[in-house]
Design a protein that fits this description.
By secondary structure, the protein is α/β, with parallel strands linked by helices. α3 links the parallel β2 and β3. The longest helix has 15 residues. Helix content is about 25%, strand content about 20%. The N and C termini lie far apart (about 40 Å). It binds zinc ion. Zinc ion binds next to loops. It holds the Pfam family FeS_assembly_P. This is Phenylacetate-CoA oxygenase subunit PaaJ. InterPro entries: Fe-S_Maturation_MIP18, FSCA_dom_sf, MIP18-like, PaaD-like, Zn_ribbon_PaaD.
């Protein structure tokens, strides 16, 4: 039997991230909790960084997703601590990113000290590690723009943080 919590979680888990539409908020790891009470559903989200403008869109998309399923009242709680890190991204999410042409974050933010070692970023198109950073800020602040020296294609790298 499917419990109410699981059904509500599944509804929330289908909502996609507006900045990386190939990822759901569950893939990204920002969906923290879904509770169903007498007053409606309370969804807890940890934004990828504070002040992320995508949160307004996610809030609207969640409200819509639940209203389609017959839930009238949806509250979206933002929890800023502990801060989201790319470590919360699921393996399925990383795979989808790569298939989409964005190099997924590598290594674990938690394993890193104050000095951040630059690990080799793999080209999502040809798999070469012979890549270089073009600019630290790509199409969104979550991503850096890279260039592959093997296939000469530019690509986004989802920064580890
Ligand atoms: Zn390449």
């Amino acid at each position: 039997m499917v419990t109410a919590r699981t059904r509500a979680w599944d509804i929330a888990a289908r909502v996609c991230d507006p900045e990386v539409p190939v990822l759901t908020i569950e893939d990204l790891g920002i969906l923290r909790d879904v509770r169903e009470g007498e007053d409606g559903v309370v969804v807890t989200i940890t934004p990828t960084y504070s002040g992320c403008p995508a949160m307004d869109t996610i809030r609207q998309d969640l409200t819509l997703a639940f209203s389609v399923e017959g839930y009238d009242r949806v509250e979206v709680d933002l929890v800023l601590a502990p801060a989201w890190t790319t470590d919360w991204m699921t393996d399925a999410g990383k795979r989808k990113l790569s298939e989409y042409g964005i190099a997924p974050p590598i290594g674990r933010a938690a394993d890193r000290g104050p000095v951040r070692l630059q690990l080799g970023v793999k080209c999502p198109r040809c798999g070469s590690l012979h890549t270089r950073e073009v600019t630290r800020f790509g199409s969104t602040s979550c991503k850096a723009l890279y260039e592959c020296r093997a296939c000469l294609e530019p690509f986004d790298f989802f920064k580890v943080h």
